[in-house]
Amino acid sequence: MSSLSLKVVSKEGIVKKEKVGSERVHIEFFEEYQLGDQIIVTIEKSEAYLMVQLDEALAPSLLYIKGNEWVYEVPIDEKLREAYSPKVFSGNIHYIWVRYADATEIYNYQNLAINTHDQKHINGAYPHAVANVETRNESTFYARNAIDGCLANESHGSYPYQSWGINQQKDAEITIEFGRIVEIDKIALVLRGDYPHDSYWKEVTLELSNGEKFVLELKKILEPQYFSFKPEKVEWVRLKNLVKNEDESPFPALTEFEVYGKNV
Asked: What pLDDT is attached to residue 45?
């Protein structure tokens, strides 16, 4: 059996709590998190799939760890926390767990893009969302918000209405990196619909890492918009060439970007 370790580390590198397990490990942490605290997961063998939940207010995620370590920066800064539930990482009673995923969890047909634990900068875990613009560099408009699983889209700003905002940049792009080859055949886009404050994209281009491109027409609706295609093996997917509808609002935005398929 492969081992894995879980620890809470301060900004100064002091280990506050640590446990090691064979297939799974958990920590009960009875302190308030401080600015700069990290949760670090170390695995014996690289390229592993983990099921994780680092806080009770974050839904569990299936993550792919490409190397041997995943470093999670605990979001304590008030500006960062605006994109999260106010319950997340709060108080002085915490339960953290990590385990190796089983075959059903890994190879089941699913939304391969969702990662409730994604952060602005890549930290060793996939999937990961990255964009060439995020409105005013504010956490409520980070690319990570488009894969956090939260579909509330009838307003904008702080949780639960966080989204990917483009600051009116005409060449805005968002990419979801999987960190390995996956096979996909469908995506879903949830547009932010705080109308009339918001506009929307009437057309976008879906680009795949294997060179395929699809031009997608969107509607001004709140519900997820699904687009299917033949199975494609990819390492990443990207939305680009975002064509805004002709209306008075300059603010189109994306609430969620789902990508369906299987790990291979």
From this structure: 87
